Amino acid sequence: MAKIRFHLAATAGLLVACCLPAQEIVRGRQSAVLENASARLVVDLRGGAIGDFHLKDKPLNPLQWNTPRDGDRAIQGFGHFLCLDRWGPPSDAEGTRGMPYHGEAANVEWSLVRPPAEVGGALETQMTARLPKAGLSVRRTVRMSAKGAVFMVREEVTNENALGRMYNAVQHPTIAPPFLDGTTLVDCNGRRGFAQGGSLPNPEEPSSFWPQAFNLDGVGVNLRRLTDDPNPNVVSFVIDEPHGWITAVTPAKGLLIGYVWKSVDYPWVSVWRNVGDGKPTARGLEFGTTGLHQPFPVLAKKGSIWGRPTFEYLDAGETAARQYVSFLLVVPTDFEGVQSIRVEKGRILIRERRGDNPREFRVDGEGVIPE
Question: Which fold has domain 22-364?
């Protein structure tokens, strides 16, 4: 009888294994891969990071930041990862109980629930994660164009606690060398902003307007380019338009990466700057539900800045959904940056920042780019 039970258990195990969604191994790590004739997108399942997004005929990955070494199976955030349930540090009490910086989403295993496949004329996959300390779960759908270098991500966050709670969700894309260098230009449609690290209760003073910011010494800095001085380190801006956007381009390498989202989903855009050995090593193109990089007790006291919230609230059992689009664009080597972006009929229209004769570029994403 024991032998029969063992046989049935083994058979059941085989049945479960054969029915699990297919995962692809990329550099020794379990991943979901979406790939068309133009581009390749890799989503890591050990932390949920989007670690690779590159063109087939220009294999330069802008998101090559903090990338694990081949065969390293550590759960970690790298490339573009999700900050959830918070952006920034836990309180001292939360930290002693194991809550990590930027929350748990990049520090837990993600489960692939729908393998990459063609759905409605596009490529699609779906994955989930549970955040045990936060009591949240997140379901992510990634939808990539069947032809172009553009994809959409929709994330649904559910409060599984018996009580409501405050939280934040911030996207943390980070560009790094070899794409990033001293000539890389960052543009966005953030308006009024402030450098993190100001004194409480009014860290937003002094304020500035994109692309200017004041560093901690009170000196004005143009944030479009980073060379050898990362001060100010993190600067956050509010968005006044229906869509928020941020781009990074290295003209000599002929490549631009961009993000577009509805400002009702993410009303803040933030830039993080880092330097090593006198050269830029990282630039964060962050956008999210908060622009204040502080623990929840500070956010609760502050409430809002310039009419924008510093935190969100989810009631017990409630789900909140947000989405964004990312794209790659080949640009001429004399490209001078982005002046504006608009979304129109399944297309992203990019207007160059170029004197009296700006050029316009188009990214087609029918079935991927929401109106």
Answer: Beta-galactosidase; Chain A, domain 5 (2.70.98)
Q: Which two tokens stand for residue 324?
A: 């964004």
In order, the DSSP letters of 131-178 are ETTTTEEEEEEEEEESSSSEEEEEEEEEE-SSS-EEEEEEEEEEE-TT
Confidence of residue 354 (pLDDT cuts 50, 70, 90): confident
Do residues 280 and 226 touch, judged by C-beta distance below 8 A? Answer: yes
- CA-to-CA distance for 208 and 28, rounded, in angstroms? 45
Reduced to 3 states (helix: H, G, I; strand: E, B; else coil), residue 107 is helix
The count of other CB atoms within 10 Å of the CB of residue 72 is: 12
Model confidence band, residue 356 (pLDDT cutoffs 50, 70, 90):
confident
Mean residue pLDDT across the chain: 93
For residue 178, give both structure tokens. 């070899």
- Which amino acid makes up residue 29? R
Number of H helices, E strands in the chain: 3, 27
Select from 307, 151, 340 the least CA-distant residue to 241.
340
* Separation of alpha carbons 321 and 158, rounded Å: 9
For residue 239, give the H/E element and its range: strand 234-239
- Tokens 């500035």 appear where? 208
- 14-23 confidence digits (pLDDT tens): 444 345 566 7
Distance (Å) of CA 157 to CA 27, 96, 316, 368: 29, 25, 12, 21
Helix (H) or strand (E) holding 19: helix 2-19
Q: What is the 3-state secondary structure (H, E, C) of 244-299?
A: EEEEEEEHHHCEEEEEEEECCCCCEEEEEEEEECCEEEEEEEEEECCCCCCCHHHH
Q: What is the pTM of this model?
A: 0.93
Q: Supply the pLDDT for residue 22.
A: 67
The amino acid at residue 24 is E
What does the DSSP 8-state code read for residue 301? H
Q: Please state, in angstroms and rounded to a whole number, the distance separating the CA atoms of residues 316 and 285.
A: 31
Rounded mean pLDDT of 248-265?
A: 98
Kindly report the number of other CB atoms within 10 A of residue 233's CB atom: 17
- For residue 135, the SS3 value is coil
